[in-house]
Amino acid sequence: MTVAPGPYLPPIAEPVRMIGGHRFDFSRQIAVMAVINRTPDSFYDQGRTFALDRAVAAAVQAAADGADWVDIGGVPFAPGPELSAADETERVLPVVEALAAASDVVISVDTFRPEVAAAVIAAGASVINDTTGIHDPRLADVVADSEATLVITHSLAAPRQPFPRPQYGDVGRDVAGHLAARADFALARGIPASRIIVDPGHDLNKNTLHTLELTRRLPEIAALGYPVLAAVSNKDFVGETLDRPKAERLAGSLAAATASVLLGARIVRMHDVPASVDAMRMLEAILGWRMPAYTRHNL
């Protein structure tokens, strides 16, 4: 009888990390990152949390619902008009301040600007999530001079610029090579390996076929030795695969997040926090990483 192999356990060089005062052991733990968009034009919620009071309330609720991290963004990845660093800071900084005052959850900010990163780190953010892969080298310097962790994401376009019909010779090899080079750049600028996370950038300058193959080949990304973040929630690859509009992609998103973890990811960035937390905690229990909340059945 052939026995199926177990889940992929990536060779993380430093799996145990202190992030925002919390201890994470990514050799046996999955972190759920909630998404709060303080933008009027986010791809998923179309401005539902653009108002400051709604953004703060949603961030606090995400922490209460069990999110390990809350990721706050003021500028969408998608192409669009320029937003100044001052305006971006005005969007995200009050949310960071309010959340830091209300909760000890890990606070992440989605930005590619060093000025914004410096302001939010000073206010309590402990993760900078750069979807441009350190487009501005000064961002690495800001993170290096702090205790913050940097998420380095694979993408090809300049910030907020279109990149039509992306092409790859080999999407797994190309993305892994790009991330390795950007991580080496971060190391050279003074960010230690213990404060680097990589994200293959599902759907970012990739079509659905690229993203599906990249998901299958996540072990190649995890083999770089850094914890892997998978931002799969409600993405277009889920909608196109299942023929589902944005409001009906939860099941597909949970399946994609679960598959990503089994293939090496250790952080999942998700919109529906309660469902995602339950799914990841169940997965941890199945993998033998956590005990059930209680045991009564057949005892």
Protein model, in words:
The protein has 299 residues and is an alpha/beta fold. It contains ten helices and ten strands. It has helices spanning 52-64, 85-102, 114-123, 137-144, 171-188, 208-216, 218-222, 236-242, 250-262, 273-286; strands spanning 16-19, 22-25, 31-37, 69-73, 106-110, 127-130, 149-153, 196-199, 229-230, 267-270. An eight-stranded parallel beta sheet has the order 8-7-6-5-4-3-10-9. It has a two-stranded antiparallel ribbon with strand order 1-2. α2 packs parallel to α3 (114-123), α3 packs parallel to α4 and α6 (208-216) packs across α8 (236-242). The longest helix has 18 residues, at 85-102. It is globular and about 60 Å long. The model has no long low-confidence stretch (mean pLDDT 94).
Compact description:
With 299 residues, the chain is an alpha/beta fold. It contains 10 helices and 10 strands.
What are the defining features of this structure?
alpha/beta, TIM Barrel, eight-stranded parallel beta sheet, two-stranded antiparallel sheet
Task: List the topology elements.
Elements: E1 16-19, E2 22-25, E3 31-37, H1 52-64, E4 69-73, H2 85-102, E5 106-110, H3 114-123, E6 127-130, H4 137-144, E7 149-153, H5 171-188, E8 196-199, H6 208-216, H7 218-222, E9 229-230, H8 236-242, H9 250-262, E10 267-270, H10 273-286
Parallel strand pairs: 3-4, 3-10, 4-5, 5-6, 6-7, 7-8, 9-10
Antiparallel strand pairs: 1-2
Helix pairs in contact: 1-2, 2-3, 3-4, 6-8
Spans of 5+ residues with little confidence (pLDDT < 50)? Answer: none
What is the highest CATH level, the class?
Alpha Beta
CATH architecture group name:
Alpha-Beta Barrel
Question: Into how many domains do the coordinates divide?
Answer: 1
Topology, number of strands: 10
Whole-number mean pLDDT: 94
CATH topology: TIM Barrel
Query: Proportion of β residues?
Result: 5-15%
Q: Assign an overall shape.
A: globular
Task: Give the number of helices.
Answer: 10
Going across the major beta sheet, what is the strand order?
Answer: 8-7-6-5-4-3-10-9
Biggest sheet layout: 8 strands, parallel
Distance, first to last CA: 32 Å
**C-alpha Rg (nearest Å):** 18 Å
The CATH superfamily appears as: Dihydropteroate synthase-like
